C-alpha cells in the first residue's frame, strides 16, 4: 500500500471502552425497564434524543433523532430530560473504579468530531504490562465487561497498540451492528493496527463532520481508500487533521493519554480482609497511614502540600477526601489530626456501608523541604532562633486546621489590587492559595484612597436603596434601606469614581458590567448611623433616573 | 459565714444577700491574674479602669464582649471592637496577626471588613486573617484554636443574632486567660444578653456627629465583680478629622465628657 508506512511497534496496550447507552442505562430517573426509554435534550429548536436504552435502539431509534420522529415510530416511548452533568459525573466515578485495572485511566481523547460531543461516552485505559495480572488480555477484557454487564451497562471494548486504533475499532469494529445487548470485544495483536484499521470507515479516524461528508462525496468508503493517497495530497485536500489522525491510529505519530488522575509519587495503601465500619478503627488506620506516608516523605526530603485519602467500600464506592496544607508537611501526627477533624466534620459521618476494604493515602502535591537541624540542648532556648522559627510554623498549622474544618474559600486574607472601583480594590484570597503576592504588581500607591474616607465594613454586594433627594444631582435627603427609613442630618460628598474604561481591554482584568460613573456620599442619619452610598450614573448625562445603592457602613 | 452561709443569707436584705453571694463566688472564681494589660487609648476609660484595679488597664488575657445597643449599631460596636483589637496588637515586640471571624449572618448583615479602611483604625490589612462566614460553633472553635497559636495576637469574632452559651464563653475566657491573649466578641443587638463569663462587656451605641456612646456593663477585674455603671461619650479622633460633615457644630474635641463614674 503506497500511503501506509511501516507499522511501528509502540509497546503500549491501550483499551478503549465505549458505552453506547451510557446515559440511558445509568440514569437514576425512574422508568419502566420493560419499555423503551429515551433521554431528550432541546437543541436547535427541536427536542432530540441524546440517550437511549438498548431496547429503544432495538426498536429502531437512534441518537440525534427528533422527538417527533421517535414518537411516530414508537408512540409509547418514555422520555425524560437528559442530565449531561450527572452522566459525566457517573463516568468520572467509573473512571476511578477502573483504576483497579490500571492507574492510567483517561477520558476520550480530543476528537475533531463535533456531533457526538455530549452523547459519546467512552474511556481509555493504558494497560501496558497489566494484562498478565488478570490472566491475559482476553481475560482482562472479559472480566471488565462482565462486571459492567452485571450492572446492566453495555460496554464495548477494543485493545490495540495506539489510542487512535482502539478508539476507532471500539466504535466501528467488525462485529458492529449486531444485537445491541451483545458487547463487542476486539483485540488487535501488537503491530497489526494497520490491518485492523484500514477496512474501517473514515469516521473511525475521529474526523470532523465536514471531513466525513467530503470523504463520502469523494467515494472514499474506507480508511484504506484514504490512505491510498500520498500524504501531501491528503494535506492539500483536507488540511493536516486527517493525516495526523491516520498516523496516530497506525502508530506513526505519537499520542499521549492523559490520566484523569496522575499517579502520585507518594502513596500508601492498606487493604483489609474484612471491611471496617467502626469510626475508631478507621481513625486508627488513617493515623497509621499518615505515619507511613510521613516516613516516605521524610526519606525523600519532601513535604506534602496536599493529601488525598480514598476509602473504598466493599461495594466499590469510593469516598475521597482531600486536604490542602499551608506548608509542606512531613509530620504524620499533624496529618492524622487534620483528618480526624475533617472526618468529624462530615455531616453524616463516614458512610461505611458494609465496611471499608481499602484505604489509600497519597501526597498529590509535594515540595522539597529542608531537614531541620537537630538543635543541641544548650542552644535550645536561644531567643533569636526561637522567635524566628515558631510563628510561621504555628501560623501554618493554624491555617491547616482552620481550612480543614471551615473550607479553603472561607479562611482568607485581603490582598490589595490596583483598581479605583472600591469593591475591586481589595481581593479576599484564600490563605493557602499559592503565592498571592504576585497577583498584581502594578503601583498601588496611585490608587490608594484616604483610609478614613472608606467604610470599615463593605456589604458583599451593593444593595439598592430608595432615595429621596431634594434635587436629582444632590445628596440624599432621606432613604429607605432594609425597610428602615433613615433621615439624613449630614452628608459629605460626592466623591466621583469613574468606570475603568481600560478594564477588559487588556484581557488580564475582567470587564465589570457596571460602566457608569458613581458618586459616593458619606451620610449620617438622626440616630448617628453612618453610611456610604452611591448614585449609579451621572444625572442627565448618563441616565435620567439614577439608582442609588448602599455600599458600606462606617463605625 | 463559711459555716452557715445559707442561714446568713436568709436574714439579710437583698443587697446584702447579693454581696454575700458575690463574696462566695469570688472564692471559687479565679480572680484575673496579673497578666499583661493595655490602655484603651480613650483617656477617660483608662482613668476609670485604673481606679478599679491599681495600675492596670484592660486585661490582655480575657474575653471582652462588645454589644450593639440597637440593630443599626453593629457597625459602631465593630468599630469599637477593632479599636480595642488595634490596641491589643500595638503591644511592643509583636508582629502578630489579627484573626477576624464572622458568622454567615454577620457577613450578610454587617458586611465584610474592607482592607483599604483598616489603616484609619490602627490596623493593617496584611496582618489580617479573615474567616468569611461560618456557623457560630465553628467560629468559637476557630477562636479557641487561634488562642493556642502564638502568631495570632488578637481575635475578634462577630455574631449577628446568636450569642455563645455560658459554657462556651467560659471555655473561651479560660483559654484566653491561659494564653494571655485577648478575644473580642462582637454581638449584634439581636443576639440578646445571655449570661456570659466575659471579663468585660461593653455596650456601644452610635451618636450623631460621629460619636459613640460606650457603656461598660460588666467588669470582672476586681474581687467584687460589681457590675459597673459607667458610660462615656467618645468622639474618636480620626473620624472627626477626616469626616467633615456639612451640618456639624463648630467644635468637637477628641474625647468629651464622662457621664457617670
Task: Summarize the largest interface: chains and residue counts.
Answer: A-B, 54 and 63 residues
CATH class of the largest domain in chain B, anyone?
A: Alpha Beta
Please tally the β strands of chain B and state the result: 12
Number of helical regions of chain B: 8
Sheet with most strands: strand arrangement of chain B: 6-4-7-8-3-9-10-11-12
**What is the domain total for the residues of chain A?**
5
| Overall form of chain B | globular
Number of strands of chain A: 20
SSE ordering of chain B: HHEHEEHEHEEHEHEEEEHE
CATH level-two architecture of the largest domain in chain A: 2-Layer Sandwich
User: How much is the average pLDDT of chain A?
Assistant: 80
Explain this structure:
The complex is a heterodimer of chains A (555) and B (261). Chain A is α+β, with helices and mostly antiparallel strands. Chain A has 5 domains: 14-25 and 83-250, Reverse transcriptase/Diguanylate cyclase domain (Alpha-Beta Plaits, 2-Layer Sandwich), CATH 3.30.70; 28-82, MutS, DNA mismatch repair protein, domain I; 266-368, DNA polymerase, Y-family, little finger domain (Dna Ligase, domain 1), CATH 3.30.1490; 411-448, no CATH class; 453-554, no CATH class. Chain A contains 14 helices and 20 strands. Chain A has helices spanning 22-26, 54-58, 67-73, 84-97, 137-150, 163-172, 193-197, 209-217, 223-227, 231-238, 240-250, 279-299, 332-345, 383-406, and strands at 14-19, 37-43, 46-52, 78-81, 105-107, 121-126, 156-160, 185-187, 266-276, 302-313, 318-329, 356-368, 411-416, 426-430, 457-469, 476-481, 484-497, 518-525, 530-536, 547-554. In chain A, helix 6 (163-172) packs across helix 11 (240-250) and helix 10 (231-238) packs across helix 11 (240-250). Chain A is globular, with a radius of gyration of 31 Å. The relative contact order of chain A is 0.07. Chain B has 2 domains: 1-30, no CATH class; 34-260, Rossmann fold. In chain B, helix 6 (136-147) packs parallel to helix 7. Chain B starts with a helix and ends with a strand. The radius of gyration of chain B is 19 Å and the shape is globular. Chain B has helices spanning 5-10, 14-28, 43-52, 74-89, 104-110, 136-147, 166-179, 237-242, and strands at residues 37-38, 58-59, 63-68, 97-103, 112-113, 128-134, 152-159, 183-187, 200-207, 211-219, 230-234, 255-260. Chain B contains 8 helices and 12 strands. Chain B is of the alpha/beta class. Helices cover 33% and strands 26% of the residues of chain B. In chain B, the strands form 2 sheets. A 9-stranded mixed sheet of chain B has the order 6-4-7-8-3-9-10-11-12, with helices on both faces. Chain B has a two-stranded antiparallel ribbon with strand order 1-2. The interface between A and B is large, with 54 and 63 residues. Strand 15 (457-469) of chain A pairs antiparallel with strand 5 (112-113) of chain B.
Amino acid at each position: 500500500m503506497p500511503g501506509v508506512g511501516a507499522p511501528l511497534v509502540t509497546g503500549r496496550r491501550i483499551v478503549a471502552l465505549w458505552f453506547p447507552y451510557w446515559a440511558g442505562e445509568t440514569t437514576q430517573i425512574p422508568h419502566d425497564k420493560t419499555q423503551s426509554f429515551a433521554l431528550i435534550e432541546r437543541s436547535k429548536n427541536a427536542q432530540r434524543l441524546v440517550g437511549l436504552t438498548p431496547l429503544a435502539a432495538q426498536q429502531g431509534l437512534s441518537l440525534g433523532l427528533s422527538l417527533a420522529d421517535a414518537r411516530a415510530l414508537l408512540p409509547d416511548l418514555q422520555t425524560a430530560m437528559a442530565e449531561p452533568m450527572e452522566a459525566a459525573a457517573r463516568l468520572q466515578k467509573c473512571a476511578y473504579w477502573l483504576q483497579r485495572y490500571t492507574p492510567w485511566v483517561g477520558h476520550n481523547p480530543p476528537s475533531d468530531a463535533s456531533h457526538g460531543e455530549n452523547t459519546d461516552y467512552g474511556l481509555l485505559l493504558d494497560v501496558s504490562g497489566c494484562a498478565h495480572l488478570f490472566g491475559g488480555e482476553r481475560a482482562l477484557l472479559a472480566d471488565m465487561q462482565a462486571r459492567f454487564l452485571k450492572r446492566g451497562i453495555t460496554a464495548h471494548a477494543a485493545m490495540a497498540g495506539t489510542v487512535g486504533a482502539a478508539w476507532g475499532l471500539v466504535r466501528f469494529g467488525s462485529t458492529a451492528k449486531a444485537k445491541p445487548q451483545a458487547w463487542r470485544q476486539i483485540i488487535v495483536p501488537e503491530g497489526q493496527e494497520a490491518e485492523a484499521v484500514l477496512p474501517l470507515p473514515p469516521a473511525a479516524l475521529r474526523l470532523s463532520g465536514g471531513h466525513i461528508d467530503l470523504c463520502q462525496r469523494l467515494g472514499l468508503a474506507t480508511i484504506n481508500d484514504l490512505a491510498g493517497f500520498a500524504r501531501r495530497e491528503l494535506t492539500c485536500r483536507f488540511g493536516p487533521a486527517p493525516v495526523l489522525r491516520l498516523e496516530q491510529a497506525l502508530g506513526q505519530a505519537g499520542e499521549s493519554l492523559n490520566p484523569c488522575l496522575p499517579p502520585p509519587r507518594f502513596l500508601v495503601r492498606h487493604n483489609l480482609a474484612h471491611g471496617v465500619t467502626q469510626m475508631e478503627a478507621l481513625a486508627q488506620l488513617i493515623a497509621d497511614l499518615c505515619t507511613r506516608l510521613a516516613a516516605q516523605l521524610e526519606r525523600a526530603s519532601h513535604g506534602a502540600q496536599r493529601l488525598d485519602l480514598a476509602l473504598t467500600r466493599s461495594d466499590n464506592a469510593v469516598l475521597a477526601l482531600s486536604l490542602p496544607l499551608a506548608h509542606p508537611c512531613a509530620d504524620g501526627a499533624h496529618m492524622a489530626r487534620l483528618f480526624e477533624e475533617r472526618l468529624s466534620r462530615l455531616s453524616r459521618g463516614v458512610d461505611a456501608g458494609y465496611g471499608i476494604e481499602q484505604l489509600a493515602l497519597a501526597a498529590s502535591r509535594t515540595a522539597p523541604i529542608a531537614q531541620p537541624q537537630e538543635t543541641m540542648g544548650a542552644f535550645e532556648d536561644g531567643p533569636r532562633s526561637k522567635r524566628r522559627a515558631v510563628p510561621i510554623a504555628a501560623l501554618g498549622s493554624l491555617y491547616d486546621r482552620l481550612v480543614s474544618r471551615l473550607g479553603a474559600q472561607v479562611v482568607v486574607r485581603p490582598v490589595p489590587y490596583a483598581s479605583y472601583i472600591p469593591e475591586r480594590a481589595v481581593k479576599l484570597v484564600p490563605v493557602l492559595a499559592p503565592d498571592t503576592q504576585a497577583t498584581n504588581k502594578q503601583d498601588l500607591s496611585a490608587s490608594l484612597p484616604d483610609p478614613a474616607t472608606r467604610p470599615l465594613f463593605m456589604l458583599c454586594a451593593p444593595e439598592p436603596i430608595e432615595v429621596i433627594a431634594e434635587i436629582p444631582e444632590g445628596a440624599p435627603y432621606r432613604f429607605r434601606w432594609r425597610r428602615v427609613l433613615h433621615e439624613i442630618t449630614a452628608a459629605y460628598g460626592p466623591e466621583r469614581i469613574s468606570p475603568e474604561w481600560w478594564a477588559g481591554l487588556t484581557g488580564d482584568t475582567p470587564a465589570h458590567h457596571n460602566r457608569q460613573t458613581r458618586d459616593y456620599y458619606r451620610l449620617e442619619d438622626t440616630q448617628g448611623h453612618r453610611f456610604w452610598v452611591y448614585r449609579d450614573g451621572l444625572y442627565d448625562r448618563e441616565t435620567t433616573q439614577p439608582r442609588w445603592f448602599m455600599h458600606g457602613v462606617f463605625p | 459565714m463559711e459555716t452557715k452561709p445559707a442561714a446568713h443569707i436568709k436574714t439579710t436584705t437583698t443587697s446584702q444577700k447579693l454581696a454575700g453571694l458575690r463574696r462566695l463566688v469570688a472564692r471559687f472564681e479565679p480572680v484575673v491574674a496579673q497578666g499583661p494589660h493595655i490602655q484603651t487609648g480613650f483617656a477617660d476609660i483608662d482613668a476609670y479602669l485604673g481606679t478599679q484595679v491599681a495600675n492596670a488597664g484592660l486585661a490582655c488575657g480575657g474575653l471582652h464582649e462588645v454589644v450593639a445597643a440597637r440593630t443599626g449599631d453593629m457597625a459602631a460596636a465593630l468599630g469599637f471592637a477593632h479599636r480595642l483589637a488595634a490596641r491589643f496588637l500595638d503591644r511592643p515586640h509583636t508582629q502578630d496577626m489579627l484573626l477576624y471571624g464572622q458568622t454567615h449572618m454577620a457577613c450578610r448583615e454587617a458586611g465584610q471588613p474592607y482592607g483599604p479602611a483598616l489603616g484609619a483604625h490602627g490596623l493593617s490589612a496584611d496582618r489580617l486573617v479573615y474567616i468569611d462566614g461560618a456557623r457560630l460553633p465553628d467560629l468559637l472553635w476557630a477562636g479557641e484554636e487561634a488562642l493556642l497559636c502564638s502568631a495570632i495576637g488578637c481575635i475578634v469574632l462577630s455574631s449577628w443574632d446568636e450569642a455563645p452559651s455560658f459554657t462556651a464563653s467560659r471555655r473561651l475566657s479560660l483559654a484566653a486567660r491561659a494564653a494571655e491573649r485577648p478575644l473580642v466578641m462582637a454581638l449584634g443587638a439581636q443576639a440578646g444578653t445571655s449570661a456570659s463569663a466575659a471579663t468585660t462587656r461593653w455596650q456601644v451605641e452610635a451618636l450623631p456627629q460621629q460619636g459613640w456612646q460606650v457603656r461598660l456593663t460588666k467588669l470582672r477585674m476586681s474581687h467584687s465583680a460589681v457590675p459597673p455603671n459607667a458610660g462615656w461619650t467618645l468622639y474618636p479622633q480620626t473620624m472627626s478629622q477626616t469626616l467633615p460633615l456639612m451640618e456639624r457644630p463648630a467644635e468637637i474635641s477628641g474625647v468629651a465628657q464622662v457621664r457617670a463614674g
